[in-house]
Every structure is written in structure tokens, then in C-alpha cells.
Write a structure and sequence with these properties.
The structure holds two protein chains of two kinds.
Chain A: H1 2-7, E1 12-13, H2 19-29, E2 32-33, H3 34-44, E3 49-50, H4 53-66, E4 69-75, E5 81-87, H5 89-113, H6 115-120
Parallel strand pairs in A: 1-3
Antiparallel strand pairs in A: 2-5, 4-5
Chain B: H1 2-32, H2 37-48, H3 51-60, H4 65-83, H5 85-114, E1 125-132, H6 137-140, H7 147-156, E2 160-174, E3 179-186, H8 190-194, E4 200-201, E5 216-219, H9 221-228, E6 238-241, E7 244-251, E8 265-268, E9 286-291, H10 297-314, H11 316-319, E10 322-328, H12 336-368, H13 370-378, H14 383-419, H15 434-458, H16 464-469, H17 477-512, E11 523-529, H18 532-535, H19 541-554, E12 558-564, E13 575-577, E14 592-598, H20 602-606, E15 610-613, E16 627-631, H21 632-639, E17 648-649, E18 671-677, E19 696-700, H22 706-715, E20 717-722, H23 730-737, E21 745-751, H24 752-758, H25 761-795, H26 797-805, H27 810-846, H28 854-881, H29 885-891
Parallel strand pairs in B: 3-8, 5-7, 14-19, 16-18
Antiparallel strand pairs in B: 1-9, 1-10, 2-3, 2-6, 2-9, 4-7, 5-8, 6-7, 11-20, 11-21, 12-20, 13-14, 15-18, 16-19, 17-18
Helix pairs in contact in B: 1-2, 1-3, 4-14, 5-12, 5-14, 5-15, 7-10, 12-15, 12-17, 12-25, 14-15, 17-25, 17-27, 17-28, 25-28, 26-29, 27-28
Classes of the chains: A alpha+beta, B alpha+beta.
Chain lengths: ~120, ~900
């Protein structure tokens, strides 16, 4: 129990507006169902980012409605049917644009946080 | 909807399955890490959070939520309605009546006033009119064109295709029994300019539009149906009109009528050799045109204007001072527009009262549900959601009301049209078409907003916990004021309609009591078409009329008979400008008078009193001294207090009574006034006092100059005074007047009593409608007062109980309630009175014969309204006075 408790501490809420990008990015490598997706985000972030299921499913359904991801039902050896989401072409394009936006944003924030470095640039 | 629901159900189940799987996977992982099954399930659930909220938020992502909310609101509303069938029945009936009546009135406005002309590209059609300085369009209508001027315009215009139409009438002697018919003489291109295809056959050819060309005719559609049973083989057969045989070449389309009623026949205008068509001083020609492609209205106006000024220079003796104008062709509806808008306005007031009534009922209902609404807010319903729900209810109610209203309108529109006094122009265009339906839907939506606004406004439910904590019977001052506002506005609207109805009633009573100026009892007037053989020879015409008068006099039951051109209170009039000295000013500065020519017995037959001098006798004829007889109005306005008898009038436009002339000749000598007679209400009982033109004079028919006898004969009527009920003599007269050749037709027979009665038809019609509207308004307002007071009093039961417990008597309590009602009623009257005065002024300006009685009518209507309101308040007041104090206090 104590081990679990520790596991659920020290987590940061996902930044507003980045969940979509994270989902699209995570689906880029392979189609996944909701639970696997949330686990992947958690593990890939070194157990730091926690995906709230209360936002994950609405986000998945919203992205599907926008046509960036698609879903199909697959039976699994585990028992229940699973809804597997995969990235679409439109989703790939969307991911590109969100990534470049994000990179600009982080560069800008980094510039503010480390002003000295910027001044040194010739 | 069902399909959408089924799909949504399936998606719901899929979502549940998806979340279920998520939980299962999480649980399995926890199990694998060594937890017990119970722990694993707990941790999976905890980590997931609130399943219900997640589902809810996810569903929102699917879109279309508003649709499902709407469905739930509708279902909720229907359930609510089922619980209160009484409320629904009253509201629906009220709204259906209001919307139905408004729809009927708007159908009329739409069909008569708003619809474009039923021709192709109606916005390219124009009318060409003349305009002379000082011409009074109110009296004479638009000035038309001389035929020669029309021909010049048509020749010189590059931007317009022009066509002409002249109204005419004559005796049709074959096929069938002789009858008097209306026909249009038209230029050959009239149908092509309007782009109206003929029902059968062809239009006139340009070469048929000349004097001496082959006589051809086109039948009016109704005439074709009546006399030829709508048979296609009618082409090539013939009709005989005024002794000329015409070959039928076509049939006009159904319902085609450019001006006035549908004519029986059309003939080529260019074939008519009549003198007045070659005289630029006579302007009988309606001119319509179509802009050629690329041409603008402004170009056409400039072009025709230029032609007009050329004509004024080239033919100064006839055309001086007359300009030509081009306007868009408007449907000829006369002054009926103002009456229609007036009625639409009145019916709109009734609808507003209906709205106020339903709104106050809904408000009372919303307040009784306050705790329920507060509870829903406490459970998380948003304000917008509750407002939407209130509006859904009122929208459902008013759309249902609108639907029933449209059905009522559809059912009552045509009975209402037949009920319209006289001819409603363009009545055939009045239909429940898409325009009307759009209007009705808009009305219903507006109604629903008006009805639902008050309850929705209350829906915010501030201070939720207070509402929940408080007893159901507390009522804020704001709500009470809102209720009172409904009553006040209903009273204010009702008083407007009551005053209008009252004013119309008084005007009608007043007009009916007026002396028409002649003895209308046992008096029959009828038109007769003189035998075409007689008409062809002007020398025979006076004898022809004398023969008709003699024949009429010989019919048993006829006391006396006369011939006259203009009959009072019937369509048609003739005016001349006059002056009292030889120094006559220009035409537009001359005072005008109505002129009638009559035979010597006219005064005796009509029962018009002779005040001074004499009427005509057999010595007044062509060549003798020109005489006239004036009425007392003319005598007074021309000569003031001086005696008019023996004086003279200069009447420049009246043809001089000389024998052996063949065109218009102005008299060098003035017309001598031989007598003064009483004024006759020529414009009808109601209209005469306010008419612009009241002065009258008479001249002997025997002194009508020969060139004009033919035209005059088309206007002449026979009037007979009878000793028996006049209508019983129509058939004997019809037989007797047919004449030796059997080709003289009697038509348009009316008793003078009918004409006098009809002259008040519009006033009577308006009174009836306004009476109905005012009655409805009064009933609705009383229901409103009753409902609001019953409700407010119901809310005050504990207070009343307390008052009675500390010594108030039942009378005190009754008075308490009545006082509350009186306060609202008088506030409403105060507000309504101002509007009612304005409405009264509008009525005075729009309806003939209205007296300035707004204020006195208001004063008589107020007690009436107060009494009705008090009666409506009495039941709630009595109920309040019977409150048992002990029970009331325990209720708290």
C-alpha cells in the first residue's frame, strides 16, 4: 500500500491545452486504448504527468469528432472489448502544427527564464 | 428523432463499455502488483474519479446536446400541460383567437397591399400620368392621358414599350338577350407589354389598331365562361356591340383586370373614331408601359417628361401647363390601405392583450413552482437552462396556438372577405400563402417570447436557499408589481379599443340621424342603355330619354319619373370650376362644384326642397338662355349672405347649350341662376360633411350640347318615385323600358334607401369589427384581472387571516381586494387614455363621418370598464372576505 501511495504522489497536472498534443503524440507510434494511453503518457513522462480520466475520455471523443483520431472496437484476450484509437492523416498534420507551436512557446519561456543567455547571443 | 435517440443510446452503451474496460484493466494491474481483489477494485475506482461526471462531460463532446435538452424540455412541458388542462385550454384558445385574427388581417394586408402585381417582372412596369398644376388627385384620381398624347409618347419613347387602355361601356345585343356591358378599348400591345398570355386565341394585331380595320374582339374570361360555356371553338364567332359586329379572336386569361372590375370584352382602341379620342383636351387613356431591357426608370422619366413639355408647347391651347410623369405601376387599391392597416393595428392590440393574459397565467404558474426550480438550481441546473425551459413551454404553447390560429384563419378568411363592404380591391389575391405563414410563425415566436419572458425572467432564482427555506406563500413586492403590470397593460390596451368602438358607434348613430337632403323612401334609381340606333344619332337622343321617362311613368306603381346623369351616393361624379364675375381666374384658382343634368321633374321625384325661384321647365332648351339651379351650399359660398337668385355664374368648361354645333363651344354669356334648392348629401350620409367638394348645381338635360349627348347618355339614369315597394317594380320597368326595338337594357337598379344604407357600410363594418375586438379585449382583460387577483389574494390568505383575527370585518377585507384592483385599473386607464386619444385622432382622419368625440367617449367608457373590472374582482374579493382566520393562521 505504501508503495502505491508513493507512486501516486509527486505528480503534476497536465498543462491546460497540451493534453490533445500528448494524446496525438502518444498515438503516433501505435494505436492504443484509453487505459494504455494514460499509462503510456504516465510512463513516458517518468511517472510525472498524470492524465485525469475525467479529461482523457472527453478529449478522446472530442478529437475523434474533429477527425484527428479514429477508433475501432477490438476483442482482446483479456476479456472485454477494447476501443482502440489510432492517429489519422489529419491528426498527424495537427500534431505537427501543435508541436511547432509548443516549441516556439517553450523557447520563448526559456528566453524569459534565462535572460542572460539571450543577451550573450551576438 | 427516434433514430437520433437510438444512435445516442448505442453510443452511451459503448462509452459505458469503454470505461468499464478501463476500470477492469486498472484493477487487473493492481491485482498483479499483489493487492487483494477488493483493494484493487477500490484503487482502480479511486484513480478513475467520478464515473458519472466523466460520462456526462464526454457526452457533451458528441455535439447536438441542445437538441436532446430541447426534447427533454418539450417532454417536461407536455407533462406540465397535462397536469393543468384548464390552463392550457384557456391559454391555447386565447392565443389561437389572437393569432388567428391577426393572420386573417395580415392576409388582407399582404394580398391587397404587399403582393406585387401578378405580371412577369412587375418592377419593370410603369404608369404614365399627366399632371396639371392644381389638379386634385384626391378628388379626381390620377390624371390620365389624351389618346393623341399617348400616340406621341409611344412614338418618341426609346426606353419604354407603352400600351393604352380606355374604359367604356355599351349595349351588347348578341349573343343572347341585350345586355349592358363594360369593355376595355386597348392598344394592340397591351397583353404583350404586361406579358400576359391569352387563355385562347391571339391578341390584337398592330394593323387592327387603326380606324376602318377589321372589327375584332377579345372576350373577358368570366364572360366567356358565362356565355360560351368556356368552349374553345368560340374563335371566329361574333358579338354585336353597339350595333357593330365584332369577330372574336381570343379570350383574356382568368382574373385579368388591370383597373376596376374584369371587363366583358376588349376591342382595339385605334378603331374607335370617337371625337373625344381625337381631342387633346380630353384625357380618358390609362397608359402603362414596360421598361425596355437596359433602360432605367429615371431615363424613362426624363424622356417622357421631355415629350410632355414638347406637347405643352406644340399644343398650347389644350396642353399648356400639363406635364407627363412616369411612376412605377402600383396595384390600383385606392384608399383601402389605411383601413387595412387600421384593422391590423386593432387586431394586434387584441393579440397583445392575449399575450399579457397568457404571460400572467404562466407567471403565476412559475411562481408556484419556485421551490421546485430552486431545488433544481441547488442540484446544479444553470440559469440559462431554466430560462430555456420556461421559453420552451411558452414556445410550445404559442406554436400550438399559432397552428390552431392558422386553421381558424383558413376557415374564416373567405367568409370574412364576402363580409367586406363593397368591393375589396385585389380580393382574389388574398390567400393564406407563404408570406402569411412566415408572418404567422414570426408572430407566434414573438408571442412566445412575450408570454415566456416574465416567467423566464423570474427563473434566475437568486438567493436559492432563502427560497427553499421560506414558506411557499411568501411573495416579493417585485412579483406583485409584475402581476399588476399585466393588468395595467391589459386595461390600457382595452380602453383604446373601447374608445375606438365607442367613437365609431357614435359616428354611425350621428350619420344615420342626418337628413340626406332628399326623400329616400320609395325611390328607385336605375341605369338604362339607350337603344344603339338612337345613340347613333345625337338628334334622336333627347327624345329617346323623354320616351324612357314616359314609359317609366306609365308603369303601374310609378308616381313620377325623371332622367338624371349623376345620382347621389352612387359612384360617378362630374365637376366644373365656376366664378361669379366675367373676370375668371386660371383653372386651379376656381372653386369647384358638382354638376348634374336633369329633366324638369327631378326635384319632385327626388323630394329635394325648392328654396327659392324655380326648377327647370320645358322652356329651357338649346338656344334659350342657359340656366342653372344651385344648392344652398353653393349659394352661400359664392354669394355669402346675398341672394343668389337672379345672379349668374361663369362656368368656362361647361359646353354652351347651342344647337347645331359639333364641338365644344364656350359660352360668352354666363349661366343664370334660376333657383336655389336644398343641399343633397351627395357623398353619402357620413362622408358629405368632410367632403372637399360639396357645392352643387343642376342644369337642364335639354340644354346639353349635341356633341356631348352620346357621352352623357352613357352616364344617365332613370329615377322613379313609387307608391309600392320600389324593388317590386324592377321587372315591370325592365320589360317596359326595353323599348320598341327591344334593345334597351336596364341595369344597376337600387333603391335610394339601399344607397344611403351602403354609404355607411364601411362605418358599420368597422364598428362591428371594433365592437368584436373591444368585446374580446374587455373579456380578456376581465379574465386577466380575475386571474391575477385570485392569485394575489390566494397568496395573501395568511395576511388576511391575521387582519381578521385582529378585528377586520369581511367588508374591510372585500374593500382591501377591490382597492388593489381599482388601483391597477385606474393606472391602466390613465396610461391607456393618452394612447386612446391618439388612436381616436387616427380614426377621425381615416374614417368618414367621425366626430371629434374622443374625450367624451373616453369619459363614457371609463365607468363601463371600471364596472366590468369590479365585477371580475368581486369573486376573489368575496372569497377573501370568507377566509377563516384560524385556518389561515394555522396554514402558515
Amino acid at each position: 500500500m505504501s508503495k502505491h501511495k508513493k507512486r501516486y504522489q509527486n505528480r503534476t497536472e497536465i498543462l491546460q491545452g497540451t493534453l490533445d498534443m500528448l494524446i496525438l503524440q502518444t498515438l503516433q507510434w501505435a494505436p492504443r486504448h484509453g487505459y494504455a494511453l494514460s499509462k503510456a503518457i504516465r510512463t513516458n513522462s517518468g511517472e510525472i504527468l498524470k492524465v485525469d480520466t475525467g479529461s482523457l475520455y472527453p478529449a478522446l471523443h472530442r478529437l475523434e469528432r474533429k477527425g484527428w483520431i479514429a477508433s475501432e472496437w477490438k476483442t482482446s484476450e483479456l476479456g472485454p472489448r477494447l476501443r482502440i484509437y489510432r492517429l489519422t492523416q489529419a491528426g498527424r498534420r495537427q500534431l505537427m502544427s501543435e508541436r511547432s507551436r509548443w516549441e516556439r512557446l517553450t523557447a520563448a519561456i526559456a528566453g524569459i527564464l534565462n535572460p542572460a543567455e539571450k543577451e550573450n547571443v551576438p | 428523432m427516434k433514430w437520433a435517440f437510438w444512435r445516442r443510446e448505442r453510443r452511451n452503451e459503448e462509452l459505458k463499455e469503454e470505461i468499464e474496460a478501463h476500470l477492469l484493466l486498472a484493477e487487473r494491474e493492481a491485482l498483479e502488483s499483489g493487492m487483494t481483489k477488493k483493494e484493487a477494485r477500490q484503487i482502480a475506482r479511486r484513480e478513475f474519479g467520478n464515473v458519472g461526471v466523466t460520462e456526462e462531460v464526454t457526452r457533451d463532446m458528441w455535439g447536438g446536446r441542445w437538441l436532446f435538452d430541447l426534447f427533454y424540455d418539450l417532454r417536461y412541458a407536455v407533462r406540465g400541460f397535462r397536469q393543468r388542462p384548464g390552463f392550457v385550454a384557456v391559454s391555447l384558445l386565447t392565443l389561437a383567437l389572437g393569432i388567428g385574427a391577426t393572420t386573417v388581417m395580415f392576409s388582407l394586408v399582404s394580398g391587397v397591399l404587399l403582393k406585387p402585381l401578378p405580371y412577369q417582372q412587375p418592377d419593370r412596369l410603369v404608369a404614365v400620368n399627366g399632371h396639371t398644376e392644381g389638379w386634385n388627385e384626391k378628388i379626381y384620381g390620377e390624371q390620365k392621358l389624351a389618346y393623341l398624347d399617348f400616340l406621341d409618347c409611344r412614338r418618341e419613347s426609346h426606353s419604354l414599350d407603352l400600351a393604352a387602355l380606355v374604359y367604356n361601356s355599351g349595349t351588347l345585343s348578341a349573343p343572347g338577350a341585350p345586355q349592358y356591358v363594360d369593355y376595355f378599348e386597348i392598344s394592340s400591345n397591351l397583353f404583350s407589354v404586361l406579358r400576359v398570355p391569352l387563355a385562347v386565341g391571339r391578341a390584337f394585331l398592330p394593323e387592327e389598331d387603326n380606324i376602318g380595320a377589321a372589327r375584332v374582339a377579345i372576350l373577358g374570361y368570366s364572360f366567356w365562361q358565362r356565355h360560351f360555356d368556356g368552349k374553345g371553338n368560340v374563335l371566329g364567332s361574333s358579338v354585336v356591340l353597339d350595333q357593330k359586329r365584332y369577330t372574336i379572336v381570343g379570350v383574356a386569361p382568368a382574373g385579368f383586370r388591370l383597373y376596376g372590375n374584369e371587363p366583358e370584352l376588349y376591342t382595339p382602341l385605334g378603331q374607335d373614331a370617337a371625337g373625344y379620342l381625337r381631342n387633346r383636351a380630353a384625357q380618358p387613356v390609362h397608359v402603362v408601359g414596360r421598361l425596355r431591357s437596359g433602360a432605367t426608370l429615371r431615363q424613362a422619366q426624363a424622356e417622357v417628361g421631355l415629350t410632355g413639355s414638347h406637347l405643352a408647347q406644340a399644343y398650347a391651347d389644350t396642353n399648356k401647363g400639363r406635364s407627363l410623369q412616369v411612376k412605377r405601376l402600383e396595384p390600383p387599391v385606392g384608399d383601402v390601405g389605411s383601413i387595412l392597416w387600421l384593422l391590423l393595428g386593432a387586431v394586434g392590440l387584441v393579440l397583445l392583450i392575449a399575450c399579457a393574459n397568457v404571460a400572467s397565467l404562466m407567471l403565476a404558474r412559475a411562481i408556484s413552482r419556485e421551490r421546485e426550480l430552486a431545488m433544481r438550481v441547488a442540484l446544479g441546473a444553470s440559469r440559462g437552462r431554466l430560462v430555456r425551459q420556461c421559453l420552451t413551454e411558452s414556445a410550445l404553447l404559442s406554436l400550438l396556438g399559432g397552428t390552431v390560429g392558422v386553421m381558424l384563419a383558413n376557415w374564416s378568411l373567405h367568409p370574412f372577405l364576402t363580409f367586406w363592404p363593397g368591393d375589396l380591391p385585389r380580393a382574389e389575391e388574398v390567400q393564406l400563402d407563404w408570406r402569411v405563414l412566415v408572418f404567422t410563425v414570426a408572430m407566434s415566436v414573438l408571442t412566445s417570447v412575450l408570454c415566456g419572458l416574465a416567467p423566464a425572467w423570474r427563473a434566475p432564482v437568486r438567493e436559492v436557499e432563502q427560497t427553499l427555506r421560506a414558506g411557499a406563500r411568501t411573495l416579493t413586492a417585485g412579483t406583485r408589481r409584475l402581476h399588476a403590470a399585466f393588468v395595467v397593460s391589459e386595461i390600457a390596451l382595452a380602453i383604446i379599443l373601447l374608445v375606438s368602438a365607442g367613437m365609431l358607434g357614435r359616428a354611425l348613430l350621428h350619420a344615420a340621424s342626418l337628413d340626406p337632403g332628399l326623400d329616400i323612401r320609395n325611390l328607385l334609381v336605375m341605369r338604362v342603355g339607350l337603344s344603339p340606333a338612337t345613340l347613333a344619332d345625337p338628334a334622336k337622343i333627347p327624345a329617346g330619354w323623354q320616351d324612357l321617362v314616359n314609359r317609366a311613368r306609365n308603369v303601374p306603381g310609378v308616381q313620377s319619373a325623371t332622367a338624371v346623369d349623376i345620382v347621389p351616393m352612387r359612384q360617378g361624379n362630374n365637376e366644373y370650376g365656376y366664378w361669379t364675375t366675367a373676370d375668371v381666374p386660371p383653372e386651379n384658382k376656381q372653386p369647384m362644384a358638382l354638376a348634374s343634368s336633369a329633366t324638369p321633374d327631378y326635384l319632385k321625384v327626388m323630394g329635394i326642397p325648392l328654396l327659392e325661384g324655380r326648377f327647370f321647365d320645358d322652356h329651357d332648351r338649346l338656344g334659350s338662355e342657359p340656366v342653372i339651379v344651385v344648392d344652398d351650399v353653393l349659394a352661400k359660398s359664392a354669394f355669402g349672405k346675398q341672394d343668389a337668385l337672379g345672379k349668374s355664374l361663369w362656368i368656362p368648361n361647361m359646353p354652351c347649350p347651342q344647337p347645331n354645333i359639333n364641338k365644344f363651344v364656350e359660352c360668352s354669356a354666363p349661366f343664370k341662376i334660376a333657383g336655389v334648392v336644398g343641399h343633397v348629401r351627395y357623398w353619402g350620409l357620413a362622408g358629405d360633411d368632410q367632403a372637399q367638394l360639396r357645392a352643387q348645381f343642376y342644369y337642364p338635360f335639354a340644354q346639353v350640347a349635341p356633341p356631348f349627348l352620346n357621352r352623357w347618355s352613357q352616364l344617365m339614369s332613370i329615377a322613379v318615385r313609387t307608391t309600392v315597394p320600389p324593388l317590386t317594380l324592377v321587372e315591370p320597368l325592365r320589360r317596359e323600358l326595353r323599348g320598341a326595338a327591344g334593345d334597351q337594357v336596364l341595369y344597376q337598379a337600387h333603391t335610394m334607401e339601399e344607397l344611403a344604407h351602403e354609404s355607411l357600410a364601411m362605418q358599420r363594418f368597422l364598428l362591428l369589427l371594433f365592437g368584436i375586438f373591444a368585446g374580446l379585449a374587455l373579456v380578456l382583460a376581465c379574465i386577466g384581472i380575475y386571474g391575477v387577483l385570485a392569485y394575489l389574494t390566494g397568496q395573501r390568505v395568511p395576511e388576511i387571516g391575521l387582519r381578521m383575527a385582529i378585528g377586520a370585518s369581511p367588508a374591510n377585507v372585500t374593500w382591501l381586494v377591490l382597492r388593489q384592483s381599482l388601483g391597477m385599473v385606474f393606472l391602466g386607464i390613465g396610461i391607456g387614455a393618452i394612447t386612446a386619444v391618439a388612436a381616436g385622432r387616427i380614426l377621425e382622419s381615416l374614417v368618414e363621418g367621425m366626430q371629434p368625440t374622443v374625450l367624451s367617449t373616453l369619459v363614457t367608457m371609463v365607468p363601463f370598464l371600471v364596472l366590468a373590472a369590479m365585477l371580475a374582482s368581486l369573486v376573489p374579493a368575496r372569497r377573501a372576505s370568507r377566509v377563516d382566520p384560524m385556518k389561515a393562521l394555522r396554514q402558515e
